[in-house]
Amino acid sequence: MDRDTLHVPDVDRSVVVYSAPPGTHEAESLALLRVLGTQDLAAEEPPVSGSPQA
Predict the structure, then answer these.
(1) In the chain, count of helices (H) and strands (E)?
(2) Staple 26 to which of 7, 20, 34, 35, CB 3.0 to 4.6 Å?
(3) What distance, in Å, lies between the first and last C-alpha atoms of the chain?
(4) Nearest to residue 34, comparing CAs of 51, 45, 48, 20?
């Protein structure tokens, strides 16, 4: 896996980019990280009593 770091001195920040060759285990792990945290894990509210079910 490769890591590149870009330092942005005007705002005292750094940007870190990870990459891996396609088809490797590392590339699959990075692809998983790309989608983790994008899911809405909030529980759905139960229907109000007496309202029609969809």
Answers:
(1) 1, 2
(2) 20
(3) 48
(4) 20
Question: Would you say residue 7 has pLDDT above 90?
Answer: yes
* Confidence bin at 2 (pLDDT 50/70/90): very high
Strands of 2-41 (E only): list them: 2-8, 13-19
Which tokens sit at 22? 């396609």
pTM above 0.70, yes or no: no
Q: Which long-range contacts (CB under 8 A, 24 or more apart) does 31-36 make?
A: none
What span, in angstroms and rounded, lies between the C-alpha atoms of 50 and 38?
33
